[in-house]
Task: inverse folding
């Protein structure tokens, strides 16, 4: 192999379980010092199929799927209520790697959202009460006043999780692992669920 040439990504390199493989890739990104490796693009669409994308943070991953938290009344929350499917993209540029995920979305159980919320810094818990996410507001002063009002409201007491805030889990039916290749002959290895809910691993043309 020529110096500097990237080794091809082979099917034999991949774990049969894509969630295990993802965890390996995430850990390698963390060890490599990739800035904020848990950042992911979340794409949703409303009932009219109009798409929207934004960056959110991965807050948990296991065999069940990928977890993030948000305001249920935000644009993403409203779209997921209308169309409970989403796509995620992780792009780890220093490693020349990317992972795409597609699947249905479900809300976490209330106790799971409570547990995460209770471990957030107090200011962020108060902010969840103060901000009507994605709504038009007059100016920043309005937002700062809402926050100050919430600080006074919860002074000397615990800040409860608001009913409009909590977690989601993307339950994947497709994951694609991408690695940059020489001459743009990139490696694309896709896992998809078949009718028996087993994972099928396929190579795609770049």
Result:
């Amino acid at each position: 192999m020529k110096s500097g040439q990237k080794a091809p990504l082979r099917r034999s390199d991949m774990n049969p379980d894509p969630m295990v493989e993802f965890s390996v890739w995430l850990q390698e990104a963390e060890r490599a010092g990739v800035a904020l490796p848990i950042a992911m693009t979340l794409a949703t669409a409303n009932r009219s199929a109009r798409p929207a994308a934004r960056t959110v943070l991965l807050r948990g991953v296991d065999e069940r799927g990928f977890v993030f938290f948000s305001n249920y009344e935000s644009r993403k929350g409203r779209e997921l209520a209308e169309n409970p499917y989403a796509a995620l993209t992780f792009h780890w540029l220093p490693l020349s790697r990317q992972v795409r995920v597609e699947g249905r979305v479900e809300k976490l159980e209330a106790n799971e959202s409570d547990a995460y919320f209770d471990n957030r810094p107090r200011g962020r818990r108060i902010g969840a009460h103060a901000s009507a996410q994605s709504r038009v507001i007059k100016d920043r002063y309005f937002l700062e006043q809402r926050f100050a009002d919430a600080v006074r409201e919860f002074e000397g007491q615990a800040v409860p999780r608001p009913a409009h805030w909590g977690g989601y889990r993307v339950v994947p039916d497709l994951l694609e692992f991408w690695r940059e290749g020489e001459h743009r002959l990139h490696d694309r290895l896709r896992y998809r669920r078949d009718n028996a809910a087993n994972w099928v691993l396929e190579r795609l043309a770049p």
Notes: Strands lie at 39-45, 51-57, 60-62, 65-71, 85-92, 97-107, 165-179, 187-193, 199-204.
